[in-house]
Design goal:
The protein is an alpha/beta fold and 507 residues long. It has 3 domains: 167 residues, Ribosomal Protein S5, domain 2; 215 residues, Rossmann fold (3-Layer(aba) Sandwich); 70 residues, Orthogonal Bundle (Helicase, Ruva Protein, domain 3). It contains 20 helices and 18 strands. Bound molecules: adenosine-5'-diphosphate (ADP) and magnesium ion.
Length: 507
């Protein structure tokens, strides 16, 4: 008899329905899996055989069993097909009834003793099931809260194979999983708060502008000035994620196997701070079975690159495309695969190799040429993607020991959210989200200057020898500063502030 059970494969974040066909016929006793399975899927047949046996069920030892995973051109990896294969075998041998498996998707790894274990990627799999109009999802019991994030699906939490067999035989139903609380009720907490950071008012202001307009930032300053602390506080002033954004981020962490068990839906904006020794694949994603890289784990959040010039040139250049598109494409033998990677880049660096160039207290020991070489490690085109450059000087002792708290992140975030709301209205019906996304056409449309503004920018361009790119950058920033000010018009003082955030070579 031929049994058909539905499962799911993931290509990047996209799910593809997989039909697991099990044929049980007379002939030379054998067990074969066909349909482009990787080694882990091949091992599945042994696990399934043993798990079925240890569950007090029957595996047809003297028959010819063929398992086909279709469509054949989709690469199937990992142990997640154990459960659908086992169910297929049980149906093909008349031990459970096929109608119970209709309209359902099965996913899960089997232990040899028949218990069902966690698999990665449950959330995108559940989304795929829903998109295809399936009604029921059989998942490892530990993964039920994650699967239940997708509404309108009946989630059946499976502890072990005997329990599932009893359910499919109609003997003892497994109650569907009911989430105990809606995960959206509690607002996210952030590790660091702007209130704790003393002084650095102009840096905080620049970071507020960056958050408001989605602009990338580079902080330059000596060691101990608080750059890392400021960067870590950045997610706390970004707008709260929408449910849609939360689901996007959660899918990525689900595939990477990085979802904390107690927190099925990620509410906190990601903050990723990879070390400069990170591999290319670690940063942008890849590997034989491609995993999302740090830039995708930072999706909708902050990618913090400390010691910016220490990252290899090739590594830094690989950021250019994702910074442009908000996605990263990974080339593979079987085709290209795409992961989302829309992050805010926050970079930090010392002004020179020793770190103290321009510091009033500490003497710099670097030669001029060493400083120039250090600063040139970041290419012009990459610098062009960073709208805001800020100097972060060391904080004086009195300020550091001052007990008074600064403005809390929540208050800053409220202003950022208002500025973002203006941008959402402005860009409604376009793919743009923030001012940082504007191209030359939008800049022309939304960043009109009056005569005073024109005069100011013209003078600045002449005196500071600014390029056309710098001109556009100034207009985009001025747009954001005006949005923070609640003003549709860009005023002269908005422009004046924007001009301060231009990049400076220190020497
Ligand atoms: N403005 C500040 N307010 C409060 N603490 C600060 C400030 N600047 C630095 N610190 C303290 O100094 C430590 C070092 O700062 P850090 O952010 O690592 O500096 P940097 O990254 O610029 O080298 C921080 O852990 C923090 O405790
Ligand atoms: Mg640091």
């Amino acid at each position: 008899m031929l049994a058909k059970v539905t499962s799911c494969a993931l290509v990047g974040l996209e799910g593809v329905l997989i039909e697991v066909e099990v044929d049980n016929s007379s002939g030379f006793p054998s067990l074969v899996i066909v349909g482009l399975p990787d080694a882990a899927v091949k091992e599945s047949s042994e696990r399934v055989r043993t798990a079925i046996h240890n569950s007090g069920l029957h595996f047809p030892a003297k028959r010819r069993v063929t398992i086909n995973l279709a469509p054949a051109d989709i690469r199937k990896a990992g142990p997640a097909y154990d459960l659908p294969i086992a169910v297929g075998v049980l149906i093909a041998t008349d031990q459970v009834w096929s109608h119970e498996a209709e309209d359902a998707l099965f996913i899960g790894e089997l232990s040899l003793d028949g218990s069902v274990r966690h698999v990665n990627g449950i959330l995108p799999i559940a989304a795929t099931a829903q998109a295809h109009g399936l009604k029921r999802l059989f998942v490892p019991a530990v993964d039920a809260p994650e699967a239940a994030l997708i509404g309108d699906l009946e989630v059946i939490p499976v502890e072990n194979l005997p329990q599932l067999a009893a359910h499919l035989q109609g003997l003892k139903a497994i109650p569907p999983y009911r989430p105990t609380e809606t995960p959206l009720q509690t607002p996210p907490r952030y590790a660091a708060d702007f209130a704790e950071i003393k002084g650095q008012e102009h840096v905080k202001r620049a970071l507020e502008v960056a958050a408001a307009g989605g602009h990338n930032v580079l902080m330059v300053g000596p060691p101990g000035a608080g750059k890392t602390l400021l960067a870590r506080s950045m997610p706390s002033i970004l707008p709260e994620m929408t449910v849609e954004e939360s689901l996007e981020v959660t899918k990525i962490y689900s595939i990477a196997g990085m979802l904390p068990a107690e927190m099925p839906l990620i509410r906190r904006r990601p903050f990723r701070a990879p070390h400069h020794t990170i591999s290319h694949a670690g940063l942008v994603g890849g590997g034989s079975w491609p995993r999302p890289g740090e830039i995708s784990l930072a999706h909708r959040g902050v990618l913090f690159l400390d010691e910016f010039p220490e990252f290899g040139t090739r590594t830094l250049e690989s950021l250019r495309q994702p910074l442009e598109d908000g996605t990263v494409s990974i080339a593979r033998a079987t085709g290209t695969l795409t992961f989302p990677a829309r992050f805010m880049l926050v970079a930090a660096m010392n002004p020179c190799p020793c770190g103290y160039y321009g510091d009033p207290v500490h003497e710099c020991t670097c030669s001029l040429s060493a400083i120039q070489r250090y600063q040139k490690r970041i290419s012009g085109p990459l610098m062009d993607r960073i709208d805001i450059h800020i100097e972060v000087p060391r904080v004086e002792y009195q300020k550091l020991t001052d007990d008074r708290l600064g403005e809390p992140s929540a208050a800053i975030r409220a202003r950022v959210e208002q500025a973002r709301a203006r941008q959402t209205r402005r860009f409604a019906g376009t793919p743009l989200r923030t001012n940082a996304d504007m191209g030359p056409a939008e800049i022309r449309q939304y960043c009109r200057l009056d005569e005073a503004g024109n005069n100011l920018v013209r003078a600045a361009m002449q005196q500071l020898q600014l390029s056309a790119r710098a001109f556009h950058r100034i207009l985009k920033l001025a747009r954001t500063i005006a949005d923070l000010d609640g003003s549709e018009r860009i005023e002269t003082h908005h422009l004046a502030e924007a001009i301060q955030y231009r990049p400076r070579r220190v020497v």
